[in-house]
Amino acid sequence: MNLKKVAAISILTLILGSTVAFSAANEVKGTISNLKYKLNGFDWAPSANSAKPVVINGQQYIPVSVVTEATKINITVDKSTNTLQIGEKQKSVPLIKEKALFNKDMGYSQNPAYVNFNGVNYKEAIVAPKVYGLAVATFYPYKKYQTLVVDIFTLGNKAEIQFVNNATKEELKTIILEPGTKLTSSEIDVAGVSEIGVVVFSLESNTNKKGADVVILPTSYYK
After folding, report:
1. 116, 131, 168, 183: which has the highest count of C-beta atoms within 10 A?
2. Residue 222 contacts by C-beta under 8 Å, 6 or more apart in sequence?
3. Predicted confidence band of residue 134 (pLDDT cuts 50, 70, 90)
4. pLDDT single digits (tens) 64-87
5. Confidence (pLDDT) at 118
6. What is the 3-state secondary structure (H, E, C) of the chain?
7. Which UniProt keywords apply (predicted)?
8. For residues 39 and 72, what is the distance between their CA atoms, to the nearest angstrom?
9. How many other CB atoms sit within 10 Å of the CB of residue 99?
């Protein structure tokens, strides 16, 4: 994690909304602030639907969502342990454990041609088989994670896979996959991202009728 970003977070007192309650019997009320922002020296504004900062007893309190958006460092609260989590989680969560939706050209597969890789049988993988045009999926990290690590390869044609923040249409990462047995492992910053649009393209003509077989292994994970 970038130490400058950590330092920026450490000087802020963060809240999850515009009112802080220390106990059921002792609530502290705040006043909405018209605070303006600069990011790396330049004027900056959070998303239009972001929570507003508040002033309590003369102290500015900044919404966690605003800090996440500005610094790209995820900040979440584990209600079961009453713990504020900043950045990557110590324990990774397999990609296949979180929700994913697929169109007809992409989905889970147990086909031995795709799940056997470098002498290992992964039993099941996310596959876009024989892609001539494009295949589409949606992953749902639900703003809980800092990073998505994908282990991915293509058989047949050269391919491109794009990861996009569905809410903002911001490109998170584009990966070019060369055919063969080479595995590409790539980290994607998903801080503050609820839905990830995944689009697979074949980058070669269809004349050989092979298409691109793009495989995301179950070793892929969030953290």
Report:
1. 131
2. 89, 92, 93, 94, 95, 98, 141, 144, 145, 147, 148, 149, 190
3. confident
4. 888 888 877 878 777 778 888 787
5. 87
6. CCHHHHHHHHCCCEECCCCEEEECCEEECCEECCCCEEECCEEECCCCCCCCCEEECCEEEEEHHHHHHHHCCCEEEECCCCEEEECCCCCCEEHHHCCEEECCCCEEECCHHHHEECCEECCCEEEEEEECCEEEEEECCCCCCCEEEEEEEEEECCEEEEEEECCCCEEEEEEEECECCCCEEEEEECCCCCCEEEEEEECCCCCCCCCEEEEECCCCEEC
7. Signal
8. 12
9. 10
- Whether this prediction's pTM lies above 0.85 is answered by no
- % of the chain surpassing 90 pLDDT: 43
Residue 218 near residue 92, CB atoms below 8 Å: no
CA angle 184, 186, 192 (to 5 degrees): 155
One-letter identity of residue 168? T
Structure tokens at 111: 């086909």
